[in-house]
Amino acid sequence: MNLDQKTIAIIGLGYVGLPLAVEFGKHRPVLGFDINADRVNELRQGRDHTLECSTEELALAKQLAFSCDNNDLQEAQVFIVTVPTPVDQANRPDLTPLIKASETVGLALKAGDVVIYESTVYPGATEEVCVPVLERHSGLIFNKDFFCGYSPERINPGDKVNTLTTIRKIVSGSTPEVADAVDALYSQIIKAGTWKAGSLKVAEAAKVIENSQRDLNIAFVNELSVIFERIGIDTLEVLEAAGSKWNFLPFRPGMVGGHCIGVDPYYLTHKAEEVGYHPQVILAGRRINDNMARYAARNVIKRMLNNGIDVPRSTVGVLGVTFKENCPDIRNSKVADLVRELQAWNVNVVVVDPWADPEEVRHEYGIELSTLDGAQPVDSLIVAVGHEEFRAMDSAALRRLCKGDCQPVLGDLKSLYDRHAATRDGFTVFRL
């Protein structure tokens, strides 16, 4: 099987799909498809609000076209699905976007076509969930009339060093011949090389454990942070001391949000329970990480009370609402949990984020973004995200944003500032 002369359709033009479409569009005909007409129009104008691709990068993809018209998919022979795979309110996998995308592809599927999934799923989901949808809507037979591949995304939003082409890519196919074809396809754009997995399930499992492993490592240091706070020692000092050994892993405590690390473990545990095993370690890590935003808020509140601040009549400034630094992505941001916990204490919360889209934050979390300039000083501050704008400030600048007639609390959740300098500037410091 040779995919060299085939037209590619990328289904979903978010943080994963757009960079992929741009790279392929530099070399061959590509249709970037999204059901959001506003997103398609934005990209046609050379703008990307996710900031993953610059106007210059979009312009380099000479063979890339954008569409939200299902009929345009008929021209493609290779379909790459890059839609989100979130969890629901009960932390169960929500495969609705994946199923809808498979329905759309199924209606355009023709004999000889290949469908490659990049969305993160549990092992077996491609064959157990997606393939039946493709068969039902196309009338074709899997591995006879059409074929599938799985090549998990490894995009790190906001990272301009570890980008799509510089990260080794896992590839797989529903037959050995398809695996070779998928490998050759991605090898056209992936400078770092590929890793051919033995089956779709192996590739699916490899992806889901990447983020589960990271989640557990962060949960470990988060639990250490809770313990060390009770002992009365600084977690960062301990980690730096332990890091003097060559094989100590440099994980740091923090709130674990986003569309990957805070979600993917639930896909793995869902499948584990489906096959009769109740996972313990993975879910324990999830419980710890899911609680860190509330834990941080309560520790700030406790210190405010100790400082004599009237908490129910206080205002707390929160710097940052995106799920990570220097990135506009707000999906599954745990800062929303932090804000809700503060509001449960009747605190007036002022949220500031120069990277986030105010309308998106309002729609997703009901939070109105504001500004802090010292004209209306706050009682305490929580620096929740390590944006470069916040890193450029020092504790003296932060202190000027607070009232002068009280001892404010600085919740330095990312350990950005010198805690001794912050104490000298009048803060009571809490950090994870």
Helices and strands in order:
Elements: E1 8-11, H1 17-25, E2 30-33, H2 37-44, H3 55-60, E3 64-67, E4 78-81, H4 96-108, E5 114-117, H5 125-138, E6 147-150, E7 169-171, H6 176-187, E8 194-196, H7 200-231, H8 235-242, H9 264-274, H10 281-290, H11 292-306, E9 315-319, H12 335-344, E10 348-352, H13 358-365, E11 380-383, H14 388-391, H15 395-399, E12 409-412, H16 419-424, E13 428-430
Parallel strand pairs: 1-2, 1-4, 2-3, 4-5, 5-6, 7-8, 9-10, 9-11, 11-12, 12-13
Helix pairs in contact: 4-5, 7-9, 7-10, 11-12
Describe the overall structure.
The structure is a single chain. With 432 residues, this protein is α/β, with parallel strands linked by helices. The protein is built from 16 helices and 13 strands. It has helices at 17-25, 37-44, 55-60, 96-108, 125-138, 176-187, 200-231, 235-242, 264-274, 281-290, 292-306, 335-344, 358-365, 388-391, 395-399, 419-424; strands spanning 8-11, 30-33, 64-67, 78-81, 114-117, 147-150, 169-171, 194-196, 315-319, 348-352, 380-383, 409-412, 428-430. A six-stranded parallel sheet has the order 3-2-1-4-5-6, with helices on both faces. Strands 10-9-11-12-13 form a five-stranded parallel sheet. Strands 7-8 form a two-stranded parallel sheet. Helix 7 crosses helix 10 and helix 11 (292-306) packs across helix 12.
